[in-house]
């Protein structure tokens, strides 16, 4: 579908469609691709760059939607998936934020507002004032983060470095009753490692809006300790869609009018 639609276009706004090397090859006039959203792993960056096509995302536009879902997921797990029985409160618990970017920061501030003790790890943010301004404690290693987090909210991008990096060892180091919340990307999880850790420790919980490949196995083995939404839904709010769509359109206009490449991701 995309292949025939792109033949003459100069600019492309995409959400979940894949812009493969084949699509780029077919789009002879293409000059700019904007992913209306944060992640852009559905664009073949190498192929785009080779053709001199500018690729952008719209950072921050849907962050609040994702952050609200992350908080909601913590409460959902604290209350046994909204089923009868005695739950727990998130107030007073330690929330660890893995990556303090656009989404991570909003989760940090909302966690503070809920009375949580918030710690965060992001090796690429060297200015500790960024954390201090939110009343968040910066920790210096991934190990320190997981070891101390009753709730761990994942906000790392999927990169060569992060893919499959969250697994057995990190989960096993978490405090009793800890919950892993993943609204980042499926690829950052080492699913076999998570299954092993949750099998060995019956107190650990995992909730995500990105169905794992091992969805059936996890649902079967872990009952209420595991939950995945039927469809990826972090950014699925009316507000986020409007914000991201408008930003994408604005960025394309600015690019053609003034050559603005501020949000380019393939430099
Ligand atoms: P962002 O680019 O604003 O922030 C990412 C942060 O990760 C940066 O601060 C960066 O320094 C940090 N980082 C990079 N590599 C790291 C590493 N190895 N260890 C620790 N930190 C590292 O991105 P964002 O907008 O906050 O998005 C965060 C994640 O959420 C991304 O994975 C994105 O794809 C995902 N996301 C999901 C949904 C959804 O619908 N569930 C919607 C939007 C974004």
Q: Element order, helices and strands?
A: HEHEHEHEHEHEHEHEHEHEH
Q: Structural class, judged by helices and strands? A: alpha/beta
Instruction: Kindly report the average pLDDT value.
Output: 96
Bound molecule kinds, no repeats: nicotinamide-adenine-dinucleotide
Shape: globular
Description of the molecule:
With 267 residues, this protein is of the alpha/beta class. The chain has helices at residues 2-5, 21-26, 45-50, 63-78, 102-113, 129-132, 142-147, 168-172, 191-200, 215-222, 238-258, and strands spanning 11-14, 32-35, 54-57, 94-98, 117-121, 137-138, 151-154, 179-182, 205-208, 226-228. It has a seven-stranded parallel β-sheet with strand order 6-5-4-7-8-9-10. It has a three-stranded parallel β-sheet with strand order 1-2-3. Helix 4 packs across helix 5 (102-113). The mean pLDDT is 96. Bound molecules: nicotinamide-adenine-dinucleotide (NAD).
Any descriptors?
binds nicotinamide-adenine-dinucleotide; three-stranded parallel beta sheet; about 270 residues
Walk me through the topology.
Blueprint: H1 2-5, E1 11-14, H2 21-26, E2 32-35, H3 45-50, E3 54-57, H4 63-78, E4 94-98, H5 102-113, E5 117-121, H6 129-132, E6 137-138, H7 142-147, E7 151-154, H8 168-172, E8 179-182, H9 191-200, E9 205-208, H10 215-222, E10 226-228, H11 238-258
Helix pairs in contact: 4-5
The protein binds nicotinamide-adenine-dinucleotide.
């Amino acid at each position: 579908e995309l292949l025939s639609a792109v033949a003459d276009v100069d600019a492309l706004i995409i959400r979940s469609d894949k812009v493969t090397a084949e699509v780029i090859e077919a789009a002879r006039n293409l000059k700019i691709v904007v992913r209306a959203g944060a992640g852009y792993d559905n664009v073949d960056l190498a192929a785009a760059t080779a053709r001199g096509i500018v690729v952008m995302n719209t950072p921050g536009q849907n962050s609040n939607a994702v952050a609200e879902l992350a908080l909601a997921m913590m409460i959902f797990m604290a209350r046994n998936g909204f089923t009868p029985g005695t739950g727990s409160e998130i107030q007073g618990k330690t929330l660890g934020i893995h990556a303090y970017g656009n989404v991570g920061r909003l989760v940090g501030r909302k966690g503070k507002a809920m009375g949580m003790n918030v710690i965060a790890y992001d090796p690429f943010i060297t200015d500790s004032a960024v954390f201090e301004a939110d009343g968040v404690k910066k920790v210096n290693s991934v190990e320190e983060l997981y070891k101390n987090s009753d709730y761990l909210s994942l906000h790392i991008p999927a990169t060569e470095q992060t893919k499959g990096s969250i697994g057995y060892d990190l989960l096993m180091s978490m405090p009793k009753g800890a919950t892993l919340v993943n609204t980042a990307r499926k690829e950052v999880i080492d699913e076999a490692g998570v299954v092993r850790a949750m099998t060995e420790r019956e107190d650990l919980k995992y909730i995500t809006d990105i169905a794992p490949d091992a969805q059936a196995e996890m649902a079967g083995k872990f009952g209420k300790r595991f939950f995945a939404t039927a469809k990826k839904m972090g950014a699925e709010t009316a507000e986020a869609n409007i914000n991201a769509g408008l930003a994408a359109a604005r960025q394309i206009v600015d690019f053609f009018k003034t050559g603005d490449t501020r949000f380019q991701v393939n430099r």
